[in-house]
Amino acid sequence: MNLHVERVRPASDREWDRAWYDCDYATFFHGREWAELWQVYTRGRVRPAPRVVELSDRTTVLLPLSHQRDWNGERYFSSLAYTYGGWISSADLGPEHARVLSELLRREFGGIVWRLNPYDPCVPTLKLPTWQPDTTHVLDLSLGLAALRRRWTRSHRSAENQARRFGISVRRASTRADWERYYELYQSTLARWGDLATSRYGQRLFRAMARRNSPDVGLWLAEAPGVGPVAGTVALYSRNHVIVWHGVALAEYFPLRPANLLYVEVMKHGEAAGYRWFDFNPSGGHAGVEAFKRSFGAEERICPLLSLEPRRGRVAAVFRRLTQMIARFGSWAKKAGEATGTANGVQ
What we know:
Elements: E1 5-10, H1 13-22, H2 32-41, E2 46-48, E3 51-55, E4 60-63, E5 66-70, E6 73-77, H3 95-108, E7 113-115, E8 135-140, H4 145-149, H5 154-165, E9 169-173, H6 176-193, H7 203-212, E10 217-224, E11 228-237, E12 241-249, H8 258-273, E13 277-279, H9 287-294, E14 299-302, E15 305-307, H10 314-343
Parallel strand pairs: 12-13
Antiparallel strand pairs: 1-3, 2-5, 3-4, 5-6, 7-15, 8-13, 8-14, 9-10, 10-11, 11-12
Helix pairs in contact: 2-7, 5-8, 6-7
């Protein structure tokens, strides 16, 4: 009997949390906390909308979705802020499960934004023509930091040592003042990137992270002697993963190499805490950023993106019909004018 969807229903918070915790390939982005942060950040315009999918082979899967409806239509997010999405489950899923679930996401959740999860073993089996290709870079911390160091480029090892000689120190931050300082560094970073910046987040998002004070959201700061924080990153944690989602640095302190040491210390903490994967996150097409990640000997993994047009809402549909009526009226008026002009001898 062919595998098919038996039922789709809303998921409870408890079901979401349990599926997230039990799934080996679930990242922070698949958890309820990420969705709730974006609900706060968008002032409720984007809301969590998780679904439980019951399949004909009695497998149960959770879709960690969020939903937005506005004048432009209806949109679902499997990947808020273009982060990893898809399904999560404690069951062993195969290629046929992936096919059925991918068809469900595209068919039933119009306007889906979905980045494939590079840790889902079923991802390489999906053959969909509309993906935008992209990659991330990862390290397997289970190999041990000593073994990983041997993969690093000579220049990176030199940069780490240089940072230590200059007295750069790294700490996991926690106070509101630390988060405020991080946002100041972010504003300087955005000014340096200018129009090349591929994302811009408001202070409301970082303040929401600070208020939650979650053990799964880590703010890490690199400090220069007598100066304070000059670089930082926001690391997001799940069962097996550490993802450095966001990073900042002051350009005038680049010669001290704070970012190199910062990432090494976050890796060291991840290894000691028993996480397996250290993920640098996609690079947004910035060649220099990719080169920095490759200096760690990181493995490249595919994480293509699917972004479909939203389903048109009532307001958008009315607007479209009005536009069509106006266009038809304009065309009719033009033809009527030409006919009148010809009748009056105007060529």
